[in-house]
Amino acid sequence: MQKMTRNFCLISLLSVSCYGLLSPQAAALNQDSERQITLQETQKDSQNNVAPQSASTPTAATSSSKMTIYKVIGKDGVVTYTDKPQRNAEPLAFDGKTQNVVTAPKVSPLPSPKPVAPKPNYRVVIKSPAPEATIRNNLGEITISAAQPGAQKAPIYRLIFDDAPLVSNSSGVFKLSGIHRGAHTYKVELTNNTGKTLASSPVQTLYLHQASALINN
After folding, report:
1. 125-216 is classed CATH 3.40.50.300
2. d(Cα 89, Cα 84) in Å, to the nearest integer?
3. For a FRET experiment, which of 1, 127, 199, 213 has its CA 20 to 30 Å from that of 18?
4. Angle at 23 between CA 20 and CA 27, to 5 degrees
5. How many CB atoms are located within 10 Å of the residue 166 CB?
6. Which of 164, 165, 169, 162 is nearest to 145 (CA)?
C-alpha cells in the first residue's frame, strides 16, 4: 500500500513538473513524503530479516552447559567416541561440568615389622687332648672330649678325624680305638638334627706313639 502511495506521488510530481505548475512548497512536501515512506520501508525490511527465536532453540549459555558426544560402532566392532555427528552414531549427552572423580581406596597402615631375633652364637672347644699332644698307647686308643661354652647349645657333636667325618653323638666325648701310630688331625663340629653345621672348633694335631714289636721280642 505504501509503495502504491509513493508511486502515485511520484506520478503526480512528474505530471506537475512537466507542466511547470509545481510550487516550491509542493516540491518540499513531496520530498518529505518520500523520506517517510523510505524510512518505513527500511524499518519493515529490518524487522523481516530478524528471525524469531524459537523457544526450543538452546541459548548460548544452555548449549555451553552441555556437550554431545557420539558413540560410533564400526563394522569390525571397534567403538569410537567423537564430538562430530556421523551416520549411525548414538548421541550421548554429558553435563559440561562433569568431572572424573576417582575415590582413592583407604590404605591401612602397614604393620610394624617384627623384631628380628638374633642368630644363635654357637661355640665349641676341644677340652682334651691339648693341641700337639703326644699319646702313647699300644692299642691305638684315644679319647677326644669337646664342650659348648656358649649359652646356645647345639644338639649334636660330630668328630672330623683326618679330614673325614668319623662319629657323632650328643655328649661330645669320643672314644676311639685301633688308631695307627703317627700324626692325626681332628676337629669337632656342632650340627642340628638335619646335619647342618652350626659351629666348628679349630683343627688340632695329635701324635700317637706305639711300642715296636721288635722290642717286645
Report:
1. no
2. 9
3. 1
4. 105
5. 13
6. 169
